[in-house]
Write a structure and sequence with these properties.
This protein is α+β, with helices and mostly antiparallel strands. It folds into 4 domains: about 80 residues; about 130 residues, Alpha-Beta Barrel (TIM Barrel); about 100 residues, Immunoglobulin-like; about 80 residues, Sandwich (Immunoglobulin-like), CATH 2.60.40. Helix content is about 30%, strand content about 30%. The strands form 5 sheets. A 4-stranded antiparallel beta sheet has the order 6-5-8-9, with no helix packed on it. A 4-stranded antiparallel beta sheet has the order 10-11-15-13, with no helix packed on it. It starts with 10 loop residues before the first helix and ends in a 6-residue tail after the last strand.
C-alpha cells in the first residue's frame, strides 16, 4: 500500500487509511504464506534521500512525526487488534543503487530487477517493438532509475547485450546470482538473523521487476537459484584473500555422514586438483569445513580464466548440494562453444531431458518455442554443467514429446553476443 514517497497525515487521509488497513488485514490474516506485516517499502529511502537539505527544519520534523504516527502508531495498533500474533515491521529498505553490495537482515531484499521471459514480450507487444530501444520496452522499466540500475548490475559481470533476447537472459542471470549470494551470506551467519523474505514472487502486470516468475508464470533464473540456495543442506564458497573457505550449512536436526568432494578443473575437463574428505554433518551445522590455499592452484593468471572449482556434498551416493566458483567475471571467462547433446524420453506426467557435454556449459537455458510456462514446468534451468557430465531434467507437461523434440532449444552463456 505504501512505497517510495511521503504520505499525508491529515485526519481525513488517516481515517481512510485505517479502514483500508483494517480491511486488508482481515482479508489476508489467514493466508498460509503470511509471515509478517510490513508498513512500507522504500519510504525509508525517501526519508533518507529527500529530507536532508531539501526541507526546512520544521517541515522535516513534521514529516518525521507524521511518518512515525502513521507507521509507528496507527497501522501497528490496527494489526495488534486484528492479528495480534503476527510480527509487524515498520519498513523494508527501498530499491535503488544504494541497495547494491549489501543484504538486509530479515527482509533479504535484493535491489536487482529483471526482464520477463521473451515469450511474455511477444504476447503484449507488436513485433516491430521487440527491441530494447522501442518506446514500448522503455515503458516496462517503470522509471528511468530501474533501467540504469539494471545496466549497472549487468556491467559488473557481463557485456551489455544489444539483442533483446540476450539482454533478457543476462538480466535474469544478474538478478539470480545477486539473490543467491544474499541468501548464502544470510544463512552463513547462523542464527544471527531470523530468516529471509522474498518480497516479490510474481508480477501483477508484465513489467521489469524483482519477481522470480513473470506475469504469465514463466519462471526466471532466480527461481531455480533460490530453490537450491534454500535447500536444507547446502555447501558454499567464501573467497578470501589467500583462501577459499568451504562451508556446510544444515537445517537438519540429525547427524548425517557425508562426503565432500572438492575439484578444480579446466573448461575442457582436465582435473588440476582434487580432494575428498569424510564429514559428519551435525544438527544445525554452520561451519567452515575446509580452507583451500589458493596461491599454488591459481598462479597462472591466463589459465585462471578457464578454471572452475566445484564443491560437491554427497550423502548415500547422492549429490545433495553442489556449488561452483569461478576466478574471473563471466565476461572474462575463456568460454568455448560446448558440444551439448540431449535426448528426450517420455515419462509419466511429462518427459525427461538428458543432457551431456564435453566442455564446460555455463548457464544452460532450455526453452521450448511457441510454448508457455503454463504448459511445461522444468525441474531445473540456467544451470552450469561441468565437462564430461550428464544431467537429467524432468519436464512436467501434457504436450506431445515428438512435438516438443522439434521445438526445444538449448543455449548457454557462450551464445550471448
Amino acid at each position: 500500500m505504501f512505497g517510495n514517497t511521503f504520505y499525508p497525515a491529515d485526519s481525513m487521509f488517516v481515517s481512510g487509511i485505517k479502514k483500508e488497513v483494517q480491511q486488508n488485514v482481515v482479508r489476508l490474516r489467514n493466508h498460509p504464506c503470511l509471515a509478517l506485516w510490513c508498513g512500507k517499502s522504500g519510504v525509508q529511502n525517501a526519508d533518507n534521500n529527500q529530507t536532508p537539505g531539501k526541507y526546512s527544519f520544521s517541515d522535516s520534523l513534521k514529516l518525521v512525526n507524521d511518518d512515525q504516527n502513521l507507521f509507528g502508531k496507527v497501522i501497528p495498533e490496527i494489526i495488534m487488534k486484528e492479528d495480534s500474533g503476527r510480527f509487524y515491521c515498520k519498513s523494508f529498505p527501498g530499491y535503488g543503487r544504494d541497495s547494491m553490495d549489501r543484504f538486509f537482515a530479515l527482509s533479504g531484499k535484493s535491489g536487482v530487477q529483471s526482464y520477463p521471459e521473451i515469450s511474455t514480450i511477444h504476447k503484449i507487444y507488436r513485433q516491430e517493438e521487440w527491441n530494447l530501444n522501442s518506446m514500448a520496452l522503455q515503458c516496462l522499466l517503470n522509471d528511468g532509475d530501474v533501467g540504469k540500475t539494471l545496466n549497472l548490475y549487468i556491467q559488473r559481470e557481463y557485456k551489455v547485450p544489444a539483442n533483446l533476447g540476450d539482454y533478457i537472459y543476462i538480466s535474469q542471470l544478474a538478478q539470480a546470482y545477486e539473490i543467491k549470494s544474499e541468501i548464502e551470506a544470510l544463512r552463513s551467519t547462523g542464527h544471527k538473523y531470523p530468516g529471509a523474505i522474498l518480497p516479490q514472487y510474481n508480477d501483477y502486470w508484465p513489467g521489469v521487476s524483482g519477481s522470480v516468475i513473470d506475469y504469465y508464470h514463466n519462471p526466471k533464473a532466480s527461481l531455480f537459484f533460490i530453490k537450491k540456495a534454500f535447500n536444507s543442506i547446502i555447501v558454499t564458497f567464501a573467497d578470501k584473500e589467500n583462501y577459499l573457505d568451504v562451508r556446510i550449512i544444515s537445517d537438519k536436526k540429525t547427524f548425517i555422514p557425508a562426503q565432500l568432494v572438492l575439484k578444480l578443473v579446466d573448461f575442457n575437463g582436465k582435473v588440476r586438483w582434487m580432494e575428498k574428505k569424510a564429514v559428519n554433518i551435525k544438527p544445525g551445522m554452520n561451519k567452515v569445513v575446509e580452507s583451500v590455499y589458493k596461491r599454488p592452484l591459481l598462479s597462472d593468471i591466463t589459465l585462471n580464466k578457464s578454471l572452475v572449482m566445484s564443491a560437491e556434498l554427497i550423502i548415500n551416493d547422492e549429490t545433495v548440494s553442489q556449488n561452483l566458483i569461478y576466478f574471473n567475471k563471466p565476461e572474462d571467462l575463456a568460454l568455448t562453444k560446448p558440444e551439448i547433446n540431449y535426448d528426450i524420453k517420455k515419462q509419466s506426467g511429462g518427459f525427461e531431458i538428458i543432457l551431456s557435454t564435453k566442455q564446460l556449459a555455463k548457464n544452460v537455458f532450455i526453452s521450448v518455442e511457441n510454448c508457455d510456462g503454463h504448459d511445461i514446468q522444468l525441474s531445473d534451468n540456467f544451470f552450469d554443467m561441468l565437462p564430461g557430465t550428464t544431467i537429467s531434467i524432468f519436464a512436467k507437461t501434457d504436450e506431445n514429446v515428438d512435438e516438443i523434440r522439434k521445438q526445444i532449444n538449448v543455449r548457454t552463456l557462450f551464445d550471448v553476443k
